[in-house]
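User:
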Amino acid sequence: MSEPRAPLRVACLAGAYVQPGARRFISMLDAHPQIDLVLILCQGTGGTWLNRLADLWTRRRWLLPAVLLMEGISITLEFVREPAAFMKFSRSWSRLKYQVEWFPNLHAPRAVDRLRQLCPDLAVVYGAPLLKPEIFDLPRLGTLGIHHGRVPAYRGRKTTFWEMYHGERHAGITIQRIGEGIDTGEVVATGQVEIEERSYSSVWREVERVGCELFLQAVLEVQGEASQPVRQDHSISKGRLFKQPSVWQIATLRWHRRRALRRHGDT
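Assistant: Predicted structure:
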């Protein structure tokens, strides 16, 4: 009989704010018997609410109140719909957040040395800044990242928003190998969520949930024959590189979604 395979040593890299989806994913990694979560490394100054507000103000400015309101509504709805699952992940993150190691720059020598010291088999990225080869090439099996959008058509930021803004039927999810460039890596797995006549928050919650499940499966399959990365064909199209939407664009999508919801309710 062959000896059982040792758990996969995984390091998770994130940004200044560990998003709710990232917290869920990290909790899923930590709970899985085939995974040994050896490091949670974040670029930022800390995980307090003051750090969160400072980061939001830097990135979103006057959209800060709207972002906090949306997050509060999303968290409340998640609790109402699945209280048991919500409490499970909340308890898990309450423990894991004390294991997060913060560095102002993930590429600083101390951060790189810390990653090298723990010798992870694989690194996973959820909301981290753009990485350089000194980070993404360090693990034995490389680095995987999640992108909430279909590539190469929707690269960059807030691509679930832009897919809805442009009237797409599905919101895409891509698990890719991290390399140089923005969302241009080899595709490991893809998924999608029906948009239909739904609000942005409803679509986004499902994109996060499906994305976490897809990402976990890709991590578990990374050493096996099932993992067959596909190179993106940039000779056909490299797609657009999207940025944060403006206040006007957010209001426009919200107005169109409300009209669609009213029409759907009248039928």
